[in-house]
Prior knowledge:
7 helices
Amino acid sequence: MKNEILKSFEASVKTKQAIINDDNLIQKIELLTQKIIECYKNKGKVLWCGNGGSAADAQHLAAELSGRYYYDRPPLYSEALHVNTSYITAVANDYSYDEIFSRLVKAMIESKDILIGLSTSGNSKNVINAIIEAKQKGAFTVGFTGESGGEMKKYVDLLINVPSKDTPRIQESHMMIGHTVCQLVEEALFPKN
């Protein structure tokens, strides 16, 4: 069992090392951070969507912005689109699961906002539909995916594609990237004296 534990940890470290060595990806993460800072300076909001583990990651990262990351400061408007189960189940039942996020985006998003969609494959239809709707409303769109970017790469303004095909390693990296962005946004908007 020890070897399997070490093998899993080593795979995680290897994926993160690949990110560190990918200057283009680091530049994209820097651009995302700058876009979020600009969004908040313009009184915008950051919305997130994903399914399963990616939904959990979306909710976690939204909470880091709307609550706090390292220290007390004013809240930032950030929300994961899946948190209203009555809405999700009603729209999935009455329309389609593929529309659960796009209908909320249609109602909530403005051109000064950012939508971040998480999908390890990049092929989640409901996330892609939300991105398409957000773009139609003039919002900045971001995809957190795995290596290929899937179908999502055709639609987003910025693709953060982790260099891996392994779902757990991709999700771990999404959280590492998201946490780093949240930290930098907090420090830029609310610098400590």
